[in-house]
Amino acid sequence: MSTTDFSTLSLTPALLSTLQELNYQQMTPIQQQSLPAILAGQDVIAQAQTGSGKTAVFALGMLSALKVKRFRIQGLVLCPTRELAEQVANELRTLGRSIHNIKVLTLCGGVPSRHQTLSLEHGAHFIVGTPGRVLDHLQQQRLDLSELSMLVLDEADRMLEMGFQDDVATIAAAMPAQRQTLLFSATYPAKIEQLAASLMRDPIRVSVAANPAQNQIEQQFFSLAGSSRELAVMLLLQQFQPASCVVFCNTKRVTQQLADALQQQGFSAMALHGDLEQKDRDQTLLQFANKSARILVATDVAARGLDISELDLVINAELAHDTDTHTHRIGRTGRAGLKGQAFTLIDGSDDYKLSLLQDDISDTIQLQSLPAKALLDKTPVQADMVTIQIQGGKKQKLRPGDIVGALTRDQQVAFEDVGKIQLHDLWAYVAVKRSAAKKALQILNHDKMKGRSFRAWQL
């Protein structure tokens, strides 16, 4: 038996069985280094990139310590964004599916507090949320953390960047001092060290270095040489034609400006940053994940929690402020053994940051020229899919099978032309091939599902 097998850990037979069903066989490096200490009840600081399997680390720690018959909040996970919180909650539910009556609640901004308050009155085992909303419920005395045994800070560096340090400290003060605390961070600045010192007891620190070469990421650096960033990004997109690409910018303003410029030139692009309404952020992420948009222009903070398994290309429209953030950005491509590409635009003001990056990757960075401007004469390729929103969801008893059945009845729309389906309480979203969108809209607006009519429109 390999030492990287999950079966070598002191997990319950039910959890081991679930891991087997989910095809989680070999532990990733971060899982192998941190899980034994976590299962032994120790505080752990884990430094690892997105995509390293860290969510399963603390999820398994929480599920192993769970006393399901004690219907009190036993674990709290704080995340910087709602998107990440929802992913974490889903993974907790998936890994804990063999445990009967387990209840995981998300407490995040962007949705009415009223529904969350009602859910809290019915109790929960685990809370996953953003610091602002968790603190709000705590101060309104709707949330009782007095019996909590585990606190997890996920993407702690980004929470500090977003100014949540005081909120985190106030939340921690409302829980028992004798608890287990786990801190996960892609980077380890001095502020994280201070946070750990204030919240943790003799933590063990584990670190898994990101190795872009292992992930088969090809990095290229392009000199702007007087060209605008908008033009440079367009030329690279036209030259390499990625099916899915994230373009990183350092500020919300530049992110929106670049996304607007790409859209005006006919590119299938969307912006993702903190100034967007929560509903718009959710729909943007949804459309990018289901292949209804090819290009996502994003800030670092907004892209946290972005979980796209097959990302062809990352473009750094602006060089990141530090080498850790650069590594984290490019680590989003080339996952799961797939090849990935990462392009970075450089101008004269980047000399200092570029020299730091060169030291970090221990290789000479060669600046290349941008592709020829004639490429802009070609029409940009559109996304394969479009997203249709349906005015009905779980509350109307809609299921994915109802939507697929309506669309493919009498082969009106081919089964392979139907993409991802997402169901929410009052809404449903279905991705369909662009060529089938008109027919799909006609069916959904005129045929019945579950014996009733629903309104549908294209996003």
Automatic annotation (TrEMBL):
Superkingdom of origin: Bacteria
Every copy of the Helicase C-terminal domain together lies at 216-376
Helicase ATP-binding domain boundaries: 35-206
Q: Which UniProt keywords apply?
A: ATP-binding, Helicase, Hydrolase, Nucleotide-binding
Motif Q motif, per the record, lies over 4-32
Gene Ontology molecular function terms on file: hydrolase activity; RNA helicase activity
- EC code(s) of this entry: 3.6.4.13
Q: Which residues form the DEAD-box RNA helicase Q domain?
A: 4-32
Extract the SUPFAM superfamilies matched here: P-loop containing nucleoside triphosphate hydrolases
Q: Which NCBIfam families match?
A: PRK11776.1 (NF008744)
The family classification in the record reads: Belongs to the DEAD box helicase family.
What's the protein name? ATP-dependent RNA helicase DbpA
Organism encoding this protein: Alkalimonas collagenimarina
Q: Which gene encodes it?
A: dbpA
